[in-house]
């Protein structure tokens, strides 16, 4: 079988689906073909936290994700609000005075740069609790709690040690599968084609070869292969500086409803030492790979409610050996069997009611996927060295929330349209400057990670 397309997109995850939508629906381009080896919206697109946030330490990511949320809201409206966008916010909590001061300073800086009003509690303004009435009705800006008593009155599930909290309001949740299906459905109705097949080679010209012998000729090629970026780029002789980290999330059954429906995604900012029984501690100490769970662990344990479960996430904890990453991710991924119990113990520091589930780790489900990361933890979006080829990838742990702006940006590159002011900071060509890469440090790899 052979065919012809104007533009071929390799990869049918959220970013590929969004790219097909922006090309076929928003720009009305004919001849768009998306090729996906497995099930569309599978792999990492099916394993995310399904959360989004307008809360980033750098100006580039603030503009990029801010634009993506704007576009997400447009898609939500176009779908008749059928893609599950909600806005409960993100709640950052601390029991440390220095961290409380830092949160306060960040909140003031965010308000000063125009990210919405800052309301301080206790103070003169009323606090509006998060609800499920829709993202349009949610308040803008930030709510800073400078009193632990006031914070716990608003969020009774929190621990007594919580002395301050920052509720960032332009953050929330969405239904990734419903969103992806809407994007693909609208794209195909606009004339795009979705093909199942594994791309095994790309010849000059372009001719995209699929496993089994089928070929698709095209004028432009867009690589959106998620964690398979290194392998896909190699077919064009490119070697983008990316690596993949395996990250897990834990589905904790919550029959006691220790956190209510409508709770924000809640993050404990402080380091944690987990509580273990003597027998558990002995078992951990005897294992070279598991004794790390006896140490003081970094902050960042967080959760959100999804249905009857709590989803526990701790992105600062990686699988053993993951610090170096890999360019050859394996599916299905294998996770540390202790991680579910670690997650439960860590969340109990934030939400004491979770202690009721100590020992339930073996009954929890662990899943997750790979963060595909560039050395600066910014996306790679733009032209590749091969003329007519483009990449939209390395979206780390923010692929679901960043997909709309990523798709819009790569579409502008492909169609040679005007680019936004952040385009240069995300272009792959930035790594052609040796001084750029030399100026990065390991802290950059954690920028924007909770």
Uncertain stretches: none
Strand order of the largest sheet: 5-6-7-4-14-15-16-13-17
Which architecture of the largest domain per CATH? 3-Layer(bba) Sandwich
The level 1 CATH classification of the largest domain is Alpha Beta
Annotated CATH topology of the largest domain: FAD/NAD(P)-binding domain
CATH-assigned homologous superfamily of the largest domain: FAD/NAD(P)-binding domain
Shape: globular
Count of individual helical segments: 11
Report, as a whole number of angstroms, the end-to-end distance: 47 Å
Mean pLDDT: 93
In short:
This protein has 450 residues and is of the alpha/beta class. It is built from eleven helices and 19 strands.
Q: What does this protein structure show overall?
A:
- The chain is of the alpha/beta class and 450 residues long.
- The protein has 2 domains: 220 residues, FAD/NAD(P)-binding domain (3-Layer(bba) Sandwich), CATH 3.50.50; 212 residues, D-Amino Acid Oxidase, Chain A, domain 2 (2-Layer Sandwich).
- The protein is built from 11 helices and 19 strands.
- The strands form 3 sheets. A 9-stranded mixed beta sheet has the order 5-6-7-4-14-15-16-13-17. Strands 1, 2, 9, 10, 11, 12, 18 and 19 form an 8-stranded mixed beta sheet that branches.
- Strand 10 and strand 11 form a beta hairpin.
- Helix 1 packs parallel to helix 5, helix 1 crosses helix 9 and helix 2 packs across helix 9.
- It is globular.
- The model has no long low-confidence stretch (mean pLDDT 93).
């Amino acid at each position: 079988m052979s065919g012809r397309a104007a533009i071929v997109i390799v990869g049918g995850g959220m970013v590929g689906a969004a790219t097909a939508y922006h090309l076929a629906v928003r720009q009305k381009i004919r001849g768009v073909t998306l090729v996906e080896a497995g099930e569309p919206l599978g792999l990492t697109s099916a394993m995310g936290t399904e959360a989004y946030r307008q809360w980033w330490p750098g100006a580039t990511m603030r503009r990029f994700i801010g634009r993506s949320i704007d576009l997400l809201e447009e898609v939500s409206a176009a779908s008749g609000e059928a893609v599950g966008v909600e806005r409960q916010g993100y709640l950052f909590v601390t029991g440390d005075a220095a961290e409380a001061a830092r949160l306060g300073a960040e909140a003031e800086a965010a308000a000063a740069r125009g990210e919405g009003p800052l309301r301080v509690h206790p103070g003169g303004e009323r606090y509006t609790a998060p609800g499920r009435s829709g993202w349009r009705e949610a308040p803008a800006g930030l709510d800073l709690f400078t009193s632990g008593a006031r914070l716990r009155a608003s969020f009774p599930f929190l621990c007594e040690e919580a002395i301050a909290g920052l509720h960032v309001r332009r953050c929330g949740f969405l239904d990734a599968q419903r969103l992806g299906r809407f994007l693909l459905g609208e794209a195909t109705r606009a004339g795009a084609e979705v093909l199942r097949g594994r791309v095994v080679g790309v010849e000059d010209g372009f001719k995209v070869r699929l496993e089994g012998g089928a070929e698709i000729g095209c004028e432009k090629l867009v690589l959106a292969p998620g964690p398979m970026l290194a392998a896909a780029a190699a077919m064009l002789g490119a070697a983008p500086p990316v690596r993949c980290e395996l990250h897990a999330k834990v589905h904790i059954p919550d029959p006691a409803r220790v956190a209510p429906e409508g709770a924000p995604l809640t993050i404990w900012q402080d380091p944690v030492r987990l509580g273990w029984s003597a027998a558990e501690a002995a078992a951990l100490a005897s294992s070279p790979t598991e004794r790390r769970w006896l140490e003081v662990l970094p902050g960042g344990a967080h959760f959100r409610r999804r249905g009857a479960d709590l989803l526990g996430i701790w992105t600062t904890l990686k699988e053993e050996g993951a610090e170096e990453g890999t360019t050859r991710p394996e599916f299905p991924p294998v996770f540390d069997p202790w991680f579910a119990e670690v997650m439960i113990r860590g969340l109990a520091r934030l939400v004491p009611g979770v202690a009721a589930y100590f020992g339930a780790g073996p009954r929890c489900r662990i899943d997750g996927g790979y963060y595909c990361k560039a050395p600066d933890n910014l996306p790679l979006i733009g032209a590749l060295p091969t003329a007519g080829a483009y990449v939209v990838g390395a979206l780390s742990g923010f692929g679901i929330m960043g997909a709309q702006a990523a798709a819009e940006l790569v579409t502008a590159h492909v169609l040679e349209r005007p680019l936004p002011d952040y385009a240069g900071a995300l272009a792959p060509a930035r790594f052609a400057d040796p001084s750029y890469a030399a100026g990065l440090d390991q802290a950059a790899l954690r920028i924007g990670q909770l």
